[in-house]
Write a structure and sequence with these properties.
CATH topology of the largest domain: Dihydrofolate Reductase, subunit A
Distance between the termini: 19 Å
Strand content: 15-25%
Bound molecules: zinc ion
Helix content: 25-40%
Strand order of the largest sheet: 5-4-3-2-6-1-7-9-8
Shape: elongated
Number of helices: 12
Number of strands: 14
Oligomer: single chain
Largest sheet: 9 strands, mixed
CATH architecture of the largest domain: 3-Layer(aba) Sandwich
């Protein structure tokens, strides 16, 4: 991989914000009932959790249908959280965004009259309709003849929005998931049934990428009162990113050395971490991959379907003659997939051929160039010229 493409993908990674979908639903998948009164799915403790997620976001988006239906103010309620945002140099409130194709939005809605800046994404036709009615209340941006959520995210990226929270409704959540644009999903399940065919559901039917076989990563499960909060990572690529970030955190634990890199490694099977290691974890010479592999039985059947995440390319030669290079250890273990963030530079060895050798033996090697800089940063103490 050339330095240029690495830079390009790193740039792409920072352009669009991280997209978090947040929803509360009944056990049977409804987000409200069909009555005029809003159905309370969450309790105070769960609203407080949502308030924290809002405070952690740069922008909050809801669809026009939800805006018309619920007439929310969409604020960060906690004064402490707002003060913390200001102390961190952020605006008191996240940017509030709504999306409408038609431009049918009442300027009397509470959304326009509370909190900080407001932004409306719409179509050319919608923009015409809203130009006068929302003048002074919100910025109106047309995405063209129709709504394109990828273009919307590009625009938010250019505005410096790094974290976007999407609070529905049905059409908006469906659109983000169908376009594979959601990075994280917070699903709060309330222990009740709605059972009304006229009530809105979390999602419409759609052709979701990889459905029905693609599995999300279940990143976390929390119990808040009688509500289950499930945190999913919908995109498969995010699993690689997440485990590599874990490996980078492990590299932070390495005892410093002037003569060797600080590397972290995680072995994952069936979506679950089965062993971890880092440089010099168990003795002064041990490598991260070696340390992780040493914790598993050589005959562990999970190795045959495992991925090893390592922040640095596995070594193909070693100064310690009695120990196998990590490339050979990985091949011997029968691990079919290696994900790395950073190719070994020529600091300590003239020519590492770990990636080439693994590929020659049929191992799939994935390089996460977007995390190379973060992996390298664990080696700031070394002169990497
Ligand atoms: Zn090694």
């Amino acid at each position: 991989m050339s330095a240029d493409s690495g830079e390009a993908s790193a740039l792409q990674g920072t352009t669009r914000p991280h997209v978090l979908l947040s929803v509360a639903m009944s056990v049977d998948g409804y987000i409200d009932d069909a009555s005029a009164e809003r159905l309370r799915l969450s309790d105070a403790a769960d609203f407080d959790r949502v308030d924290q997620v809002r405070a952690d976001s740069d922008a909050i988006l809801i669809g026009a249908e939800t805006l018309r239906r619920d007439n929310p103010r969409l604020l960060v309620d906690s004064a402490d959280r707002r003060a913390a945002r200001i102390a961190a140099g952020k605006p008191e409130f996240p940017l509030k965004i709504t999306v409408t194709a038609s431009g049918e939005l009442d300027p009397a809605l509470r959304f326009w009259h509370h909190g900080g800046d407001k932004l409306v994404y719409t179509t050319d036709a919608g923009a015409k309709r809203l130009a006068d009615s929302l003048s002074g209340l919100a910025e109106v941006v047309s995405l063209g003849t129709e709504l394109d959520f990828g273009v919307l995210l590009d625009d938010l990226g250019r505005r410096g929005i790094a974290r976007l929270m999407v609070e529905g409704g049905t059409r908006i959540h469906t659109a983000f998931l169908a376009a594979d644009l959601a990075d994280e999903l917070h699903l709060a399940v309330a222990p009740l049934l709605v059972g009304d065919p006229a009530a809105p559901r979390f999602l419409d039917a759609a052709s979701f990428p990889g459905a029905p076989h693609r599995r999300m990563t279940l990143a976390d499960v929390a119990k808040i009162g009688d509500i289950a909060v499930l945190r999913y990572l919908p995109k498969p690529a995010d699993q690689d990113i997440r485990f590599m970030q874990r490996a980078i955190e492990l590299a932070r634990l390495c005892p410093p050395s002037e003569t060797a890199f600080s590397v972290g490694a995680v072995i994952v099977a069936d979506g679950v971490e089965i062993a971890t290691g880092y440089s010099r974890e168990t003795d002064a010479k041990v490598h991260a991959e070696e340390s992780a592999l040493d914790k598993l039985d050589a005959n562990d059947p999970r190795l045959a379907r495992a991925t090893i995440y390592t922040t640095l390319e596995p070594c193909s030669q070693r100064g310690t003659a009695t120990r196998l290079p990590c490339t050979d250890r990985i091949l011997r273990a029968g691990i079919p997939r290696v994900v790395l963030a950073w190719r070994e530079p020529t600091t300590f060895v003239t020519n590492c051929v770990g990636v080439e050798k693994l590929r020659q033996h049929g191992v799939e090697v994935v390089e996460l160039a977007e995390l190379a800089a973060a992996a390298m940063a664990m080696n700031r103490h070394l002169d990497l010229t």
